[in-house]
Design a protein that fits this description.
The structure is a homodimer. By secondary structure, chain A is of the alpha/beta class. Chain A is built from 13 helices and 12 strands. Chain A has 3 domains: 47 residues, 434 Repressor (Amino-terminal Domain), CATH 1.10.260; 128 residues, 3-Layer(aba) Sandwich (Rossmann fold); 145 residues, 3-Layer(aba) Sandwich (Rossmann fold). In chain A, helix 1 packs across helix 2 and helix 10 packs across helix 11. The longest helix of chain A is centred in the last third of the chain and has 17 residues. Chain A binds a DNA duplex through helix 2 and helix 4.
DNA sequence: AATATAGGTTTAATCGTTTAAACAAAAAAT
DNA sequence: ATTTTTTGTTTAAACGATTAAACCTATATT
């Protein structure tokens, strides 16, 4: 049934010429290589007839270029990242690259695994949404001079190419927004993480309070562990509310935290925004479904993904390309959950 | 900085032997090939020292096996599919396979593109969450004898391997559930689609009514177009409610439909489940966030993904492997949105 | 007429592996 | 002391493509 794969040789045989000619013609080098017009036509015809599909492996082996990039995603089950993956794959393909995606599931060890599998596969470069404790992997890539671009998350202490949003500003904006709307005791729930973007989100929050002369109460900031998210978010909220200076608004540093937090807020029969104002990072349909649409920081997903590909491709085409770092703005989408206090 | 890649040849040189020996040793064939014990150790040591990483391209070219499978996903931005992708990638890697993922975005043409790119890349087989109108692609693969497994969606008129849930039964269960809870005028919003799983969901719904001797009112079933989902879902709901036999419950045939529908139901200030009982296919955090947790059909995501890989790998290892078709059960997770009428 | 140039095609090396087959030397069997 | 067997190693072809170089032949230039 399935006839064997057609190779250059098969075409050459049918046409009664050497494989060299076939290669020249099929790669559009008939001019430079002065292939006879007749024979060129014949070769093309036969190639079409046999439905010739070049073997990418052979091409790559010979040329040293695989036109493949590795995409390591911290958590593919997160819709934000899944969307990024979709964009990256699409954009890369339009640039002639194929993407191999792996989800590290926020686990540095798995990330190493993936990195090695992909390197074995001769990927030319990486786009990485890094997980925590993966610094060594980044250093490794740097040392080996393997091109890569960090996406969404980067490390302040390692000089690399990256594309992220300005997390400090985004968080700062969120804080200022709530303050302007009349909220005073603003809490933040973030992940306990060494990752720079998370620290920036916290820093932005703190500066918003500071710049507004609101005295920060240490009980307002909660850092929960990824692996205990459900339990610890609950505890965080309990604690924030039980304090002598209970919060009247919460900023969630990620979409996942918000989901957990809002669920618990429902359980407690607290009303948003009457009892608690809410702003969250990330976006997802879930926020639209909440009885009170959530104010959130919208990240330019498409732009982030496309730019990451663009930078990487630029670097692959030109190894001399200098460091490229892009910061984008997140946009605060204001909705019901942060309604002005005086309107409540 | 980055020293050139280490090849078998380099190791052979250092050890003062031929590449053949190195290959034997590094592939654990020292026994069969009677390699000297001493030299074997030496080779291993050098390989480790130089941190030798085999070139997968060369291996594949020579052996004809790429240990790569293509995963074509109808819509990677859908969390359900993103999760499937994550599972498939993980499971495949544990079986020694690498996955190249592409999102067809419910577009048959893009799906063709992907298919060809992946075939060029010499993938050994496919796992496909098919989009509509992709029958020709399936026939193509069959004709070419290229192994593949359809996942989540399959075509009733094409004999293929597949792994899906029993959509008829799931939908039937949802219908019966609502009827038992006292709802009488049950509507369904589905996609207008030739895809078998969608037809099955509709069929299950209709049979649930029939078997319960509830007369089906043609205004209760709405099929909306994917590309006009927002507008048409609204129109569907309006129409269902305006009818002389207005619905008191709705089954959404997919997660995406539910999101849109629930948003609109909020806009209309209708209360779930008092005004409208709800059951939906699919799962996502969004459902938990709704003021009234949504009753939904939970699909065994992990099982689906793993089984698809399993079937494909089995087929790759043994081309004689006969047709494999697996139907799994979706589980109805009962929550507030379908509360018994008499308890309201 | 001898030489240079252009036109058209083939040869052969190469990329990094694998592996059947050939080869050589030592050990065992005659 | 031969022959056979075993053990250890190398050779070389193959996978499917690319491409510099070599090679013809015919025409143009001197």
């Amino acid at each position: 049934m399935s006839k064997k794969k057609i190779s250059l040789k098969d075409i050459a045989q049918q046409a009664g010429v050497s494989t060299a000619l076939v290669s020249y013609v099929l790669n559009g080098k008939e001019k430079e290589s002065r292939v006879g017009h007749e024979i060129a036509l014949k070769i093309k015809k036969i190639a079409k007839e046999l439905n010739y599909q070049p073997n990418h492996l052979a091409k790559s082996l010979r040329s040293g270029k695989t036109y493949t990039i590795g995409l390591i995603i911290a958590d593919l089950s997160n819709p934000f990242f899944a969307n990024i993956a979709r964009i990256v794959e699409d954009e890369a393909r339009h640039n002639g690259y194929t993407v191999i995606i792996g989800s590290s599931d926020e686990n540095a060890e798995k990330s190493w695994d993936l990195l090695n599998v992909l390197l074995n596969r001769q990927v030319e470069g990486f786009i990485i949404v890094s997980s925590e404790n993966a610094e060594n992997q980044i250093y490794y890539l740097k040392e080996k001079n393997i091109p890569f671009v960090l996406l969404d998350r980067h490390f302040s202490e390692i000089q690399t190419d990256f594309v992220t949003i300005n997390n400090f500003k985004a968080s700062y904006d969120a804080g200022i927004h709530l303050l302007q709307r009349g909220y005073r005791n603003i809490g933040m729930i973030a992940y306990k993480s060494q990752l720079f973007h998370m620290k920036e989100r916290i820093r932005g929050y703190l500066y918003a309070l500071k710049d507004s002369n609101v005295h920060f109460h240490k009980n307002w900031l909660k850092e929960v562990r990824f692996n205990y998210i459900e339990k610890e978010v609950k505890a965080a909220i309990d604690s924030m509310l039980a304090s002598d200076l209970p919060v009247d608004a919460i900023i969630f540093a990620t979409y996942g935290l918000a989901i957990n937090g809002l669920k618990y807020i429902n359980e407690l029969h607290l009303k948003v925004p009457t009892d608690l104002g809410i702003v969250s990072f990330g976006q997802a349909e879930g926020f639209d479904l909440y009885y009170c649409p959530i104010t959130y920081l919208k990240q330019p997903i498409e732009d982030l993904g496309k730019t990451a590909v663009e930078l990487l491709v630029k670097k692959l085409k030109n190894p001399e390309q200098g460091m490229q770092q892009v910061l984008m703005e997140a946009k605060l989408i204001v909705r019901e959950s942060s309604k002005a206090k005086h309107e409540l």
